[in-house]
Amino acid sequence: MGTSYIIDAARTPRGRGKLGKGALTSVHPQELFAQVLRALPQRAGFDPREVEDVMAGIVSQVGEQGANLARNAVLAAGWPDEIPGVSLNRFCASGLQAVNFGAMAVGSGAMDLVVAGGVESMSRVPMGADGGGQDGGNTQLRKRVFQVPQGISADLIATLEGFTREEIDGVALRSQKNAARAIEEKRFARSLIPVTDPATGAALLAKDEFPRPNTTAEGLAALEPAFVALGSAPAGPNGETLDQIALAAYPHAKEIRHVHTAGNSSGIVDGAAAVVLASERYVKEKGVKPRARILAMASVGTEPLLMLTGPAPASLKALRAAGMDARDIDLWEINEAFAGVVLQTTRALGIDPDRVNVNGGSIALGHPLGATGAMLLGTALDELERRNAQTALVTLCIGGGQGIATILERV
């Protein structure tokens, strides 16, 4: 396989995902992704007619986010009719999976220029709006494995790992502080595409809207656990609660300690992101100077009830493919779906916490599901350049028991 190059990466700011309250809630998700597409050619120096495919990750593919959003965004951006688009869903990893598929296409020589990323308008198309839940309501599947909601899995992981509430909140506080510093120092400025009203051209949002820079340890500690009521809800065929279903698979836990709150879990936001990927042939023929190359990609399946432990094995798989180990990675982006996921991955791989999520993560900035993976890759690339460092690994946990990882290297 040949080399997959990253020419550029861009994203919208993240807007609060509450209808009528967030700055981006008036923007149709097709238009949100289209604004990133429209900005990329001038930024990255390519002709849109050269793009061979547009790949977009979207989790809730229903209503405004249905009907193949990727293709409609191509049309909304005013790109040539000849450019196709495909929408895909690997839950929270959808945006990074789109990038990985694009990297496979250009690395294999099947294509020369691909734009890949994702979008999620969580205000207009709420999480779970497709009605599929975790398992599509398949009662036969539930006889084999009952997939509890992710919040229950996150609390189960924290219980099994022995993480205290203070440790969990510590991840959240660090995320908020790192994000506040990154915003103050304009570390996100290179990647940000300000969003405008598609109808009027009026400015809507130029910086991330979700962070709470005044967050304190005391404030986090005062928040009530978010999944206690959910855990006690009857869900099994014989009236078993979700906590009981989880504990039946992990009886040595004895009880689930609910430690995740709204303050140490990822935020609900709107946003879009895209990455421009090119083949070695395209780079040479066009004289383009790439920003980075993809060293390795990996995806794995993991135990589906515990569900959120995929980042560690996916990262190890990618590291093996690249002939590296965890110590060779300068920067880690571990998606902060829940604070416990970051702690579990960091512990499992023996990572220096000072290399993890140095500009904050989804707890502070928000997690626009289908877009997050592509956003994390762009954030990692910008920070590598700012620090004059070389390698970064981006990884996300995934619903249903999966993990994904991508290693990039500056060129």
UniProtKB/TrEMBL annotation:
EC id: 2.3.1.9
Gene Ontology MF annotations: acetyl-CoA C-acetyltransferase activity
Domain Thiolase N-terminal, chain residue ranges per copy: 5-236
Protein name: Acetyl-CoA C-acetyltransferase
Keywords on record: Acyltransferase, Transferase
A Pfam family it matches: Thiolase_N
Family: Belongs to the thiolase-like superfamily. Thiolase family.
InterPro entries membership: Thiolase, Thiolase-like, Thiolase_acyl_enz_int_AS, Thiolase_AS, Thiolase_C, Thiolase_CS, Thiolase_N
Thiolase C-terminal domain boundaries: 289-410
PROSITE patterns: THIOLASE_1, THIOLASE_2, THIOLASE_3
Keyword Chaperone: no
